[in-house]
Amino acid sequence: MANYNPYDNVLKVMNEAAEILGYSDSDIAALKYPERELKVSFPIVMDDGSTKVFEGFRVQHSTARGPAKGGVRFHYAVNSDEVKALAAWMTFKCAVVGIPYGGGKGGVICNPAKLSERELHEITKQFTIAIAPLIGPEKDIPAPDVGSTASMMGWMMDTYSMLQGRTVRGVVTGKPVEIGGSLGRTEATGRGVMFTTKNILNKLDIPVEGTTLAVQGMGNVGSISAKLLYEEGMKVVAVSNSSGGIYNKDGLNIPAILDYLSKDRKNLLSEYNEEGIVHISNEELLELDVKVLIPAALENQINETNADKIKARVIVEAANGPTTAEADEILASKGIVVVPDILANAGGVVVSYFEWVQNLQSISWTEEDVNAKLKDIMDPSFNAVWDIAQENDTTLRTGAYLIAIKRVVEARKLRGI
User: Fold this and answer.
1) 190-to-196, 222, 295, 383, 391 alpha-carbon distances in Å
2) 389-394 long-range contacts, CB within 8 A, separation 24+
3) 249 is a catalytic site residue
4) How many C-beta atoms surround the C-beta of residue 22 within 10 A?
5) pLDDT digits (tens, 9 = 90+) for 167-226
6) Which phi and psi (to 5°) does residue 402 adopt?
7) Choosing from 84, 105, 125, 291, which is the catalytic residue?
8) pTM of the model
9) pLDDT of residue 3 exceeding 80
């Protein structure tokens, strides 16, 4: 796995879908390469007085259907291949749910946990200055991702606005509500995962109430997915984060766990205890005998080394690229249903789109409006993917790519590109 390139995953699924659609190599040739790749480096004066140079990336995979859209990842393992893959996934994610964006992604190589707020502010500011020629409300709209926050989006907006000499709220999404963010944006990705999980259980005639669930990754997306599905009546038996996991066969007290984690960022899941809990590793969580598994951490968590040990009946991908192409084949042979990332976790970009629309029109919607509009997009998108997968006797992942690639290729043709 050390040499695994996530971009290879993208190309493999893209080629499979294009073949089913009857597209020639020339029809999809442009989609195999990003339109633009920018690598930047910038010096930061650290709190101890030393100067450190940080590196970052911004990739625009496709703008055929609209401005590029995608998060900014602050993580020590960020690299150009990862950012390219994430940008491509964003292209197809926006296409599969029918919002008028292309795909982009950014990243800075750093460890936010080891940086002070002042250092993070400076890194965000200098990164924004470095990528400023590429971004803008009509060009490329960043958002939060792994390791970045709403506050950091506020800093990005302010830095870009200073360069323009006016306030430009629509340059980023996922901002604090007080400066143009949308109500419901923080919970949007997790809420979309919840809608999708309920949709797939309904199609498979599995009741939501009492169905067992394990969630790998308790960041924003995983924790909100766990919370909302717990509230819907699912029995969440295991959760984990980078410090480790906890398991209780009778179900975990999710509100108590979230309260513990929110009180102090130094509170570790590995140190959390309540009656009946067993401490497990992230690897053990993935292999638990549960009905539904939600990987909500990083890429490549389910791969050829552990796919044959997965016991879940359904996997709902809340993370981007958590399952490798090799693992997909193993899971399909075992009859495990995988709801792909470009559908399951699209709630975040859908509500980012809503935020952008509100910014451009200088209006604001209620949280109830936002959540209802999100459901109105997620449910039909799920049904369309389910139907095309059934018609073509393919996996849901291939079904999602059938819809997405067709929309991107047709947009390019209609524009005469």
Assistant:
1) 10, 7, 12, 19, 29
2) 392/20, 394/20
3) no
4) 7
5) 999 999 999 999 999 999 999 999 999 999 999 999 999 999 999 999 999 988 999 999
6) -60, -45
7) 105
8) 0.93
9) no
